[in-house]
Amino acid sequence: MNSRLRALPVALAPVHHETIGSYLNRLADANHLSIGHLSFLIGPGRRHRRDDNRVGHWSPADLPRLATLTGRSIPALLHAMPALTAVQETGVHRVTLAVEEASEPRRRPACRLCMAHRGIHGLVVRSTGAHEGVCHRHRLWLLGGNQHELSGLPEITSTNRRHRRLVRRHKSPFIAMDYLHARKITALWFREADPSPLHQCWNRRLDTLPEDPYGDPHRPDEDRIELATYPETAVLTSLFASSHRRGHHDLRAEAARRLAVATQDLPTGLTDNQLTHPLANWKTRAMAEQLTKWSVTDGTVIHHMHYGLRVQIPSGEIGVVDRVDIDDNYVNPADWPAIGSVITVVGAGYAGPQLRLSSRPSHLDEARARMAADHDSTTQAETGKFGPYSGVRSS
Ligand SMILES: [Zn+2]
Q1: Suppose 44 and one of 58, 168, 185, 362 were both cysteines; which one would form an S-S bond, judging by CB atoms 3.0 to 4.6 Å apart?
Q2: How far, in Å, from the CA of 140 to the mean position of ligand 1?
Q3: pTM, entire model
């Protein structure tokens, strides 16, 4: 099939971090093909929805065909759509770290004004982190289904600048988890029956948004609540990120201080225990087994496999560093750490009986920082009670 394959008449470029499904659907639309037929030409035997960013059913031979059809180089395609890196070799069964799975980037429409400016028509879906939820050029909110205008809400754009800086300092996917938990808490606070001073801010922000023609005026939808509470969510995100390092003993008082409200004015019905509980839960699911129990250790590279490195740790156990967890950036197999060399790894859970490891510098940094916090902190030192780790699974 490859020899007869030629570039499509309309060979669109992917938008940066566009989902695979969005790109294929746009290519199909522009060339008047069905998505099923385009998928057949490329190889993967399945239709892609626009928000689909998975590579199940893709094989390594499909990438060159996509490159031929689009007239783009494979590195350019991988750069725009990093999810495609997982199809580069056969038999790769990447086991996603639990934290990555829980904090998977959200898939949502790209800024409609940016796309129009670039002459791109039709829906473009991108896979982006929560901190990329504001288009600063057009002052649009991108996290929800409606791209709300933010010129009446300067605190949202300034919060987003702080949020971006926070993410640059703390590395994903951990800071994304902190955001998810903070969002859960502000959403709970929002629904408290007893209005707090924070509700005045939230209602004022909601009042600047255009009326939702289909929504209940007294019960804003999740997207609107996320927007209205975003500054407070970002404050809590930052607090949680720093509490891992510094171990605040009274998280509730610290939250009140940072939100500039009296502690007793924080939404009632939420105790310090409830505020910290999601953190403890987060550590249970994502961190306790993989990073606290096994922690950071040195291991000897004993094999290069097509899927990554086999590494023996001091206990004698042999773990696997998936090829995408060798470094934060793509590493050519020729440049993998040599057999016999000693590398620093962090435990990442078990897939069945198989120990998974990571040597990504960002994972090591974060593991070390959080372990240091565990040693300092007395408020969150209950890691010994955590049950078996079950967050890792094959995908
Ligand atoms: Zn824009």
Answers
A1: 58
A2: 7
A3: 0.67
